[in-house]
């Protein structure tokens, strides 16, 4: 497998795991097969024709996809990391598998990458997913009345099952990262293409021009750009909707685009909310100052 650590803003990053082709067939578990079957069913529902027999399937997927967009991108990213089975643990300890971490060195230093991974693998993150996994499981009986609705399946129950599985899978991914860090099984690698995508930013840069630039770009000597200081600088976006797709295209990982677009939307929304909150506090402070009696 291969890990990508992609800064979305100066303080928030996306983690994503690409499972290599030669691993997919040999490491497929029962849970993976069940997950794939559920995904295929969902895709079939999305393409269902309109009508009273199957029209409800399209509505379920429409509103379901909106719910999925609210799930934190950190959870989606951790879910992409396979659980740490005994077989995988033995193989990784024996050095049969090299786990590569790809990141843009021109944007984030290697020591910051390690700190970000520690946050994804930390006790707080694992406790969060454990808490909500059990909370969702305990809440499942509350969906029982929905089973009385004729024709339609018990959608609330299946959604709770999905959320419980999602938290379990995210916790498993977090534990896997923790294992890799503790045993120093990660190889940190920079990517010239990835760095160029970040440098492109919101500019209108063609793929042809970027391919030309990549040929002139030396990975061992990345073009320096101002690295953000997450502790002192105001948080700002490093990826936008425009160059988010460019990252996945340059890396030749098409499935990464959906994760990037979701993460970018969520971080942009969070930054807007923070800005509005700061403006409200500033307005309130100004009102209080104006109301103070002059001495």
Plain-language structure description:
This protein has 295 residues and is α/β, with parallel strands linked by helices. The protein has helices at 21-24, 30-46, 55-70, 73-79, 86-93, 110-121, 123-139, 155-182, 192-200, 207-216, 241-251, 256-291, and strands spanning 2-7, 13-18, 99-103, 186-190. Strands 2-1-3-4 form a four-stranded mixed beta sheet, sandwiched between helices. The relative contact order is 0.14.
Structure keywords:
single chain, 295 residues, alpha/beta, 4-stranded mixed sheet
Topology, please?
Blueprint: E1 2-7, E2 13-18, H1 21-24, H2 30-46, H3 55-70, H4 73-79, H5 86-93, E3 99-103, H6 110-121, H7 123-139, H8 155-182, E4 186-190, H9 192-200, H10 207-216, H11 241-251, H12 256-291
Parallel strand pairs: 1-3, 3-4
Antiparallel strand pairs: 1-2
Structure at a glance:
The protein is an alpha/beta fold and 295 residues long. Helix content is 59%, strand content 7%.
* Tally of DSSP β-strands: 4
Please compute the radius of gyration using only Cα atoms. Answer: 22 Å
Major beta-sheet overview:
4 strands, mixed
Work out the strand percent.
Answer: 5-15%
Q: Which regions contain 5 or more consecutive residues with pLDDT less than 50?
A: 202-210, 216-225
Global structural class: alpha/beta
Query: Which strand order do you get reading across the main beta sheet?
Result: 2-1-3-4
Order of helices and strands: EEHHHHHEHHHEHHHH
Specify the number of helices.
12
| Principal-axis shape | globular
| Ends distance | 69 Å
Assembly state here? single chain
Average pLDDT for all residues: 80
Helix content: 55-70%
């Amino acid at each position: 497998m291969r890990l990508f650590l992609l800064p979305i803003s100066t303080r928030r990053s996306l983690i994503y795991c690409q499972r290599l082709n030669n691993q997919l067939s040999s490491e497929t578990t029962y849970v993976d097969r069940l997950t794939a079957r559920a995904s295929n069913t969902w895709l079939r529902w999305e393409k269902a024709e309109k009508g009273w027999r199957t029209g409800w399937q399209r509505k379920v997927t429409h509103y379901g996809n909106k719910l999925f967009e609210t799930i934190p991108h950190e959870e989606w990213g951790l879910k992409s990391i396979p659980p740490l089975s005994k077989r995988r643990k033995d193989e990784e300890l024996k050095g049969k598998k090299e786990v590569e971490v790809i990141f843009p060195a021109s944007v984030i230093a290697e020591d910051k990458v390690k700190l970000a991974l520690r946050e994804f693998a930390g006790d707080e993150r694992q406790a969060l997913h454990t808490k909500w996994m059990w909370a969702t499981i305990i809440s499942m009986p509350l969906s029982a009345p929905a089973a009385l609705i004729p024709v339609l399946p018990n959608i609330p129950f299946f959604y709770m099952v999905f959320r419980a599985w999602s938290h379990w899978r995210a916790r498993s991914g977090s534990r896997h990262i923790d294992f890799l860090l503790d045993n120093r099984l990660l190889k940190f690698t920079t990517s010239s293409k990835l760095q160029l995508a970040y440098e492109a930013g919101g500019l209108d840069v063609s793929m042809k021009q970027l391919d030309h630039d990549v040929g002139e770009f030396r990975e061992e000597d990345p073009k320096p750009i101002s690295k953000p200081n997450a502790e002192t600088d105001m948080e700002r976006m490093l990826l936008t909707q425009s160059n988010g797709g460019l990252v996945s295209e340059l890396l030749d990982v098409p499935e990464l685009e959906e994760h990037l677009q979701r993460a970018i939307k969520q971080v942009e929304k969070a930054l807007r909310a923070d800005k509005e909150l700061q403006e409200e506090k500033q307005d309130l402070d100004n009102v209080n100052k104006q109301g103070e009696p002059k001495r």
